[in-house]
Amino acid sequence: MASLHKQSGRPNWFCAFTTSDGSRHFKSTGTPDRKHAQQICRTWAQASLYGEKLNADKAREIIAAGVADIMAASGQILPSTSISNWIKRWLITKSVENEQATHTRYEAAMSVFSEFLGKKADRNLESLSPEMVLSFRDYCMARASVGTTNTNLKIVRSCLSAAMQQGLIGSNLAIQVKLLKERGQSKRREMTLPEIQKVLVQCDNTPWRGLVLTGLYTGQRIGDCAKIRWQQVDLVKKTISFVTQKTGKRLSIRLAEPLADYLSELPASDNPAEFVFPKLAALGENASAPLSRAFAEEILIPAGLMAARTRNHAATGTGRKGQRQVNEVTFHSLRHSMVTMLKATGASQAMAQMIVGHDSTAVNKRYTHLSADDTADAIGKLPDVTK
Length: 387
Description:
Elements: E1 3-5, E2 14-18, E3 24-28, H1 34-48, H2 56-73, H3 83-97, H4 100-117, H5 130-141, H6 146-165, H7 193-203, H8 207-218, H9 222-226, E4 233-234, E5 239-243, E6 250-254, H10 257-265, H11 278-283, H12 289-300, H13 313-316, H14 333-344, H15 349-356, H16 361-366, H17 372-380
């Protein structure tokens, strides 16, 4: 039983309550407001009844309820929501702010987070703890690569940061959980010149050859390369322009001679809106994953740059939720190769990153508006991998 008391000469109310072991306590509530003091006293009394059974989740629940009661007593409302409801609200906001590819990645990460939480996702957002986020990181690590695990954790951090800005939580506890270091795992890397030439031999005269040259000499992602339209290419001025799917960044760069020669030999089109690589554009119409899989199966695996994939998950003994192997070489490796080649020509790190569409504070400070003419010198010095 809890009760309020006043002491002579002291403005604040005192709370008397009994703990589960039978001992009596007398503490100042720290407030002269009787309604506030009643709620504080009641919260202490509720918590004391649990004794050794009081855990972190229950303590947060009691504290949140007590704070809500105090604010209600003063005519205020404590902002609150469940974890699942906040995730839905946040994803809706991000769908407006981000490109589709980025939003799809956010949805995937939060879907894994919700799957991990299970019924706990219906709890108040305040019930989340660093231990839960740490367990989520380990849950991801058992099922995916270090890179995917870290990306999922970063997205959860971003979600909770937005919740903190809305006043739904007091701090972003996910910041306390460290990202993993990549150790003992294969990492994605650039393609070497001999490897690029192996790939080109495997491509033969198929559209894959044009896609590889585009990826190598522009540094763009596979989805952007596959969806190039003739109106983006100016063979007279030797320029090519992009609006990247992932960042929405506009890029205009000089065409490298090997790519310009390849495009010049393709059948001319009367329709400037037509895709340069129609079949590949259709394959990657809704997502880049089908394109990446096809490139791996038709080019990288036959070229000996990627191990054959096991389609029967049961045969591996890991199941679909088992940790997947990270391939060292993918189409994205051409992007890294482009940066390496550019730097070998004497281009600065910022220039190289700007050309391939990387977004960073350092790049933006130096190259706010990069034209095709700005890239002419660096692109013109790139080696011809077709010879």
